[in-house]
Design goal:
about 70 residues; about 85% helix
Amino acid sequence: MKFLDWYVKIGTVSALIGGSMELFMIKSGFYDKVAVIESERLAWENSPEAQAIREALNPWRNSDAATEAGKEN
């Protein structure tokens, strides 16, 4: 292992940088903001308005209806 010390240094520096980034995100309240945004997004996706938009923008809506009608026969 010719370059083992170099890999250990890179691994250590990377772990320190990653840890400091995580600490900053925890201290700044990043995860709390993400939780709020995620809950708002999920509430929007389950709303009737979002379902209507999703259905209107579905390019396969006509072929899906035809396929289901064919299965019923």
